[in-house]
């Protein structure tokens, strides 16, 4: 089968590409390398037809989609605070870009499009866990764009008969997540700080919680959603079903790093939600999904990876460290 992965050079996309390659599938990637990196596809580039272009370029998306059986649409601006600073750009990529990917998928006659939706659609409603039947109520520009993408999927299914599935990912983490940007995911940022001997920064009191989901679980759910029967038009949570606070993650990381984190606490971030935890019964039922790698095991694997990728360089750049 031929798969088009938008954002295939990103953290989640490259995980999907790696698994598709392992399964012997035909892979096309479209990525403008704005946040993705070719190095994420190290050892895989000869297995991939690579289109370096933005999903906002309709012709380029059309070329990439030609002949595809499945489209896995991950390309996006993924940061909540960046969306607060740059709402127009976030909208252009996440909403207009998604619309263009949908048009290209429709015109290419693909079997199904699977979309990386987000738990941010739920906003800050106090009810936990978040279940798909709850009304969406995003509280950041980012959340609005990701939820708008879901609405477009449903309209394309209804109006054009395009099969679609929206997967609401909950805080995905793992090897290859970019740690070096202020917009990076929190666990990646914490790990890089610990490796560099710097203080991790916590926005708020650290008692906010997330359903942190290890990348392998997300890859499994996403590929399952391409081929499962009876899921077209659905919105499904992809998570672990539990949650941990940032302070708890710091305590686990201290054990892994073998030193105190000495986190610095700053003002909470605009647009942030407090707590996030998913009900995953629907994905279990419809996809046979099971989060096989739990949070602690995922964190251990991720730490090992950052240690091998960034550990030495970080130690060398640490002030006063003789190597
Ligand atoms: C994350 C994803 C988003 C996804 C959503 C749901 C990233 C960058 N964002 O959003 O794409 O749609 O989950 O799956 O992966 N924090 C700190 N210190 C830091 C960085 C963050 O305390 O250095 C805090 C934030 O204020 C927030 C929490 O950690 O309370 C999580 O932030 P972040 O990792 O950016 O993820 P989400 O905003 O939850």
Question: What does this protein structure show overall?
Answer:
This protein is of the alpha/beta class and 323 residues long. The protein has helices at residues 11-22, 58-65, 80-85, 87-108, 141-160, 186-196, 215-227, 246-257, 281-287, 295-317; strands spanning 2-6, 26-31, 48-52, 70-73, 112-118, 164-169, 172-173, 201-203, 209-210, 213-214, 234-238, 244-245, 264-266. Strand 1 (2-6), helix 1 and strand 2 form a beta-alpha-beta unit. It is globular. The structure holds uridine-diphosphate-N-acetylglucosamine. Uridine-diphosphate-N-acetylglucosamine is lined by residues 78-80, 118-120, 169-171, 183-186, 189, 201-203, 208, 210, 246, 269, 272.
List keywords for this structure.
binds uridine-diphosphate-N-acetylglucosamine; 323 residues; globular
């Amino acid at each position: 089968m031929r798969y088009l992965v938008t954002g295939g050079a990103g953290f989640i996309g490259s995980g999907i590409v790696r698994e598709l390659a392992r399964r012997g599938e035909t892979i096309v990637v479209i990525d403008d390398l704005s946040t993705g990196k070719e190095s994420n596809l190290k050892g895989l580039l000869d297995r991939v037809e690579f289109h370096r272009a933005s999903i906002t370029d309709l012709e380029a998306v059309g070329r990439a989609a030609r002949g595809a059986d499945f489209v896995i649409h991950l390309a996006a601006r993924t940061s909540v605070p960046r969306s607060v600073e740059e709402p127009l750009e976030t909208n252009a990529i996440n909403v207009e870009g998604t619309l263009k990917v949908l048009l290209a998928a429709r015109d290419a006659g693909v079997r199904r499009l699977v979309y990386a939706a987000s738990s941010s659609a739920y906003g800050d409603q106090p009810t936990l866990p978040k279940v798909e039947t709850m009304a969406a109520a995003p509280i950041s520009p980012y959340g609005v764009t990701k939820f708008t993408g879901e609405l477009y999927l449903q309209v394309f299914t209804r109006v054009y008969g395009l099969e679609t599935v929206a997967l609401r990912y909950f805080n995905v983490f793992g090897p290859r997540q970019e740690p070096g940007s202020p917009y990076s995911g929190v666990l990646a940022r914490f790990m890089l700080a610990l490796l560099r001997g710097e203080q991790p920064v916590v926005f708020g009191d650290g008692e906010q919680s997330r359903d942190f989901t290890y990348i392998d679980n997300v890859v499994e759910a996403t590929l399952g959603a391409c081929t499962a029967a009876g899921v077209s038009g659905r919105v499904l949570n992809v998570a672990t079903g539990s949650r941990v606070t940032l302070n708890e993650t710091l305590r686990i990381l201290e054990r892994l790093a073998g030193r105190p984190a000495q986190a610095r606490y700053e003002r909470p971030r605009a647009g942030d939600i407090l707590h996030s935890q998913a009900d995953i019964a629907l994905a279990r039922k419809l996809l046979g999904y099971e989060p096989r790698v739990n949070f602690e095991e995922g964190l251990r694997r991720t730490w090992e990876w950052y240690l091998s990728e960034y550990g030495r360089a970080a130690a060398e750049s640490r002030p006063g460290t003789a190597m």
